Amino acid sequence: MRPLPRGSKKNRGISLGLLALCLAAAGCLQSQGVSLYIPQSAINATVEEDILLSVEYSCHGVPTIEWKYTSNWGAQKIVEWKPGTQANISQSHKDRLCTFDNGSIQLFSVGVRDSGYYVITVTEHLGSSQFGTIVLHVSEILYEDLHFVAVFLAFLAAVAALLISLMWVCNKCAYKFQRKRRHKLRESATEDIELQDVEC
Ligand SMILES: *[C@@H]1O[C@H](CO)[C@@H](O)[C@H](O)[C@H]1NC(C)=O
Ligand SMILES: *[C@@H]1O[C@H](CO)[C@@H](O)[C@H](O)[C@H]1NC(C)=O
Ligand SMILES: *[C@@H]1O[C@H](CO)[C@@H](O)[C@H](O)[C@H]1NC(C)=O
């Protein structure tokens, strides 16, 4: 009679232990997760603008933040840092990038070449990580306007040149015509004089 209740007590103890273990594991998994919030995942900009690639993360401890830039020319790591320490910025982005403790980066005076995908990876001390992407499109509206103006001016110049050459040709024609007429007039006048001479 005795061993039975003891056994059930043991079983209950084991299942309680398992439950506690499961809860602990779940808690562990939850606490390991990195969450990343990106308010604007697509940004349109024009050249010379300063662009904030804004993000915010939450995790346990101090993570490592890394930004990669991907475009048609390939992928490249542009910056890596731990919040609160000096950032390791790639040579291509030195002097034109600054970092914020919330994981955001700012690009100064962007050019059309900066268009592309910016991928942030936040890696926690324990190894779990999370990534997010921001698409940046930089257009050269100002330059396009200038281009249009230049084409328009060239067109005007061409039309003006055409008109001037036409006028020159017309002028030449008219001059020739006049000279011919004057010549004919002079000829007829001399004939008249000759005729008069003969008559005299
Ligand atoms: C950016 O421009 C594209 C067209 O070039 C447009 O479809 C898109 O909605 C714009 N995005 C934002 C965030 O203004
Ligand atoms: C991150 O920090 C920068 C600078 O303080 C701020 O401008 C930006 O709004 C922050 N991003 C988010 C998503 O809160
Ligand atoms: C900075 O990054 C480069 C290449 O990504 C690496 O070789 C260098 O050791 C890094 N420097 C520091 C201080 O982490």
UniProtKB/TrEMBL annotation:
The keyword Glycoprotein appears for this protein: yes
Taxonomic superkingdom: Eukaryota
GO biological process entries: filopodium assembly; positive regulation of excitatory synapse assembly
Residues in the signal sequence: 1-31
Gene Ontology terms: cellular component: axon; dendrite; plasma membrane
Any Pfam family matching the protein: Receptor_2B4
UniProt keyword Transmembrane, yes or no: yes
Protein name: V-set and transmembrane domain-containing protein 5
Organism: Ursus maritimus
Gene: VSTM5
